């Protein structure tokens, strides 16, 4: 049965953060299109949308893919504003990308107007055999920063669907973080405002 907009229970804004080349875009491409290819680093920001079925409800996800370069921070900060969840991605084969996470978390906290947003840590590229960051090290970091934690491979699709399901469930279980969809026009207006803001910053 085809789903219509009136059946959407909640709309959630989720952004991705992390260094370039850790696989943020590849994770999103795998989740939204079930595809994988070698992609160039994101320039500025990119926006995707997907509806998933969680806890017996249709939940529409507004997904923001951000550049991992310092020079784009003036553009990407709006993507972290009013986020229900932020996914912090590192490459398990690159210690430097893991060490950068503290800065990404602080920056996201500074930009996000929601103080109780859900944080998720994803260690990507587990299909490669060049690991520099252990699961124990990452799990300890996630625990100390109150983050959900999973490892994924965008290439093989390992853990990708599970990551989004866990993130959305946690958001829905967080009191006062979100509200059910009531006014369709209001929801569309908020979506258009965010897209318009990013376009103005990038132009």
TrEMBL record:
Gene3D superfamilies given in the database record: P-loop containing nucleotide triphosphate hydrolases (3.40.50.300)
GO molecular function per UniProt: GTP binding; GTPase activity
Alphabetical keyword list: GTP-binding, Lipoprotein, Nucleotide-binding
Keyword flag Lipoprotein: yes
Record's signal peptide: none
Pfam families, per the entry: Ras
Keyword match GTP-binding: yes
InterPro entries found in the cross-reference section: P-loop_NTPase, Rab, Small_GTP-bd, Small_GTPase
PROSITE patterns the record matches: RAB, RAS
PANTHER family in alphabetical order: RAS-RELATED PROTEIN RAB
Name listed for the protein in its UniProt record: Ras-related protein Rab-18-B
Species whose genome carries this gene: Trichinella pseudospiralis (Parasitic roundworm)
Taxonomy of the source species: Eukaryota, Metazoa, Ecdysozoa, Nematoda, Enoplea
Encoding gene per record: rab18b
């Amino acid at each position: 049965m085809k789903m219509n907009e009136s059946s959407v229970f909640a709309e959630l804004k989720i952004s991705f953060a992390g260094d370039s080349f850790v696989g943020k875009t590849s994770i999103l491409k795998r989740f939204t299109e079930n595809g994988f290819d070698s992609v160039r680093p994101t320039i500025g920001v990119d926006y995707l949308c997907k509806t998933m079925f969680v806890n017996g409800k249709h939940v529409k996800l507004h997904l923001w893919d951000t550049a991992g370069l310092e020079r784009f921070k003036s553009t990407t900060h709006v993507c972290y504003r009013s986020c229900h969840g932020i996914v912090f991605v590192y490459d398990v084969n690159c210690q430097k990308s893991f060490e950068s996470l503290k800065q990404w978390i602080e920056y996201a906290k500074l930009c996000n107007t929601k103080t109780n947003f859900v944080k998720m840590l994803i260690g990507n590229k587990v299909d490669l055999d060049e690991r520099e960051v252990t699961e124990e090290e990452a799990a300890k970091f996630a625990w100390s920063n109150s983050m959900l934690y999973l490892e994924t491979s965008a290439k093989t699709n390992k853990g990708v669907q599970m990551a989004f399901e866990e993130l959305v469930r946690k958001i829905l279980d967080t009191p006062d973080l979100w509200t059910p969809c009531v006014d369709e026009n209001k929801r569309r207006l908020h979506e258009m405002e965010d897209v318009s803001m990013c376009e103005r910053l990038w132009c």
